[in-house]
């Protein structure tokens, strides 16, 4: 009579042990995957993003209104810092608005509020530290790194106005936005001046590309944007001829104006849509072809690559610069910057790569080597 009882007890014990093991496995899995995140941590992440976006709006204002340049200038003139009264006098802007903005910049860590007594405008002295002056207000420095802030309001406006519909239809939109074109132009000018021209070009093909550019080369810049690379290179290599190709009306207009302002005769911009979709169809025309941060944005990257290959002279060089990424979601997830790259992608890069029906839609992290 004991046997059935023992069997029942054994089964119950085994069941209890299995339940404990199952619960432990689930706990460990939740821990490993981060599924047991607390609501406080979830709220923290949301508010970090909201705070970041709002702080970005103030960086945007500082850049747009020339406040960083003015503050840099004021700090160079006297070590004792400046007040909002000084800043108002040098910019012609209203003291009340500057008071709010400077306090925010100090709270954010861009400005330093000097020790002292009193809370009136004349009592509050600020300093813009040298590192921030360089990053925010010195376009000649290799550390100048504020330009992309110019694109942020446009990207947020896209998220509000047009991207929700793109999620429904599948169709994105091209790069046509003056602030976005200008932001990318300013940002890339830094790397072109400090890296591409002085370091990268001399290192290609044992210096042959540089020698050819010095003596006279034909160069195509596919997806030339606002014309930064064309302009910098046309200045540096006056015996060479530079042709930019673009599909964005805004970028074409921006590049044409910049080339005219620089009075360059060896730089030209073409509408890539008129040149059969990408580039002048004359074969073997170019000694150097550049696609600088373009292939992952192009709706038909394969066609662009075929056209580029055809247009390349027999000993020509094609310089492809693109976003460094891995193949696939899991591998890219390991990159801490992926959260920003994927945000760029929905609002800009993938939107451009899906701006035509049947667009390939590679996106920011979509062109892995
Ligand atoms: C990230 S921006 C880079 C612009 C420029 N190369 C620079 O570095 O500043 C990418 C540019 O590629 C252009 N683009 C995309 N597809 C293109 C195509 N098929 N032909 C020419 N330009 C294209 C976009 O309009 C956009 O201006």
UniProtKB/TrEMBL annotation:
SUPFAM superfamilies according to UniProt: S-adenosyl-L-methionine-dependent methyltransferases (SSF53335)
Superkingdom, taxonomy of origin: Eukaryota
Family matches, as InterPro entries: Methyltranfer_dom, SAM-binding_MTase, SAM-dependent_MTases_sf
Pfam short name (any one): Methyltransf_31
Domain Methyltransferase per the UniProt entry, residue ranges: 214-351
Protein name per UniProt: Methyltransferase domain-containing protein
Upper lineage: Eukaryota, Haptista, Haptophyta, Prymnesiophyceae, Isochrysidales
